[in-house]
Amino acid sequence: MECTVSWTGGTHGARSGMGFVAETGSGHIIAMDGAPDEVHPENGGLNLAPRPMETVLAGAGGCTAYDVVMILRRGRHDVRGCSVRLTAERAEIDPKVFTRIHLQFTVSGHALPREAVGRAIALSHEKYCSALAMLSKTAVVTTGFDLVEI
Questions:
Q1: Are residues 37 and 106 in the same domain?
Q2: What is the pTM of this model?
Q3: How many domains would you assign to the chain?
Q4: pLDDT of residue 42
Q5: How far from chain centre, in Å, is Cα 31?
Q6: How far, CA to CA in Å, does 78 sit from each of 47, 100, 138?
Q7: What is the pLDDT of residues 102-143, one digit of tens each?
Q8: Residues 37 and 78 in one domain
Q9: Quick check: 125 and 141 in contact, CB under 8 A?
Q10: pLDDT per residue as tens digits for the range 25-36
Q11: Are both 84 and 137 inside the same structural domain?
Q12: Are residues 144 and 104 in contact, defined by beta-carbon separation less than 8 angstroms?
């Protein structure tokens, strides 16, 4: 797996933002930017894209949601939707790693057993999701879920 990340600010002068573009090994593009810095504008971003740490959090959400859907499908459950809202806290000093992450899933489907959904989430968290495995080295990760009958 590979990824190339390039600073976009350098093309417009040395002090034109903190935007970055990542090109993944699969050929996809992800834009990232920093927050504006009113005290030191030359160090701030232009707020044109998500922050790099937001993309880390989004990646973890995508990883675990993918797992949950696949596990439920493999169990021949009629899953119709899955979303996960991630809320995180970060350390106050550098490196500002995630210290707490809560994942609140909303899983919808027809006659989905509550136990099967809970087990799918637990399996993702405990065994399959590489992103959560890495993040759980510094963060306490908790989960919850809501089940919606369709």
A1: no
A2: 0.91
A3: 2
A4: 75
A5: 14
A6: 40, 32, 35
A7: 999 999 999 999 999 999 999 999 999 999 999 999 999 999
A8: no
A9: yes
A10: 999 999 999 998
A11: yes
A12: yes
Shortest CA distance to 138 belongs to which of 99, 91, 86?
A: 99
Q: For residue 20, what are the β-bridge partners?
A: 7, 32
HSE-CB at 97 with a 13 A cutoff on CA atoms is 10
| 74 and 109 housed in the same domain | yes
Q: State which residues form the domain around 38.
A: 3-43
Tokens of 38: 């009113």
Q: What is the CATH number of the domain that holds 103?
A: 3.30.300.20
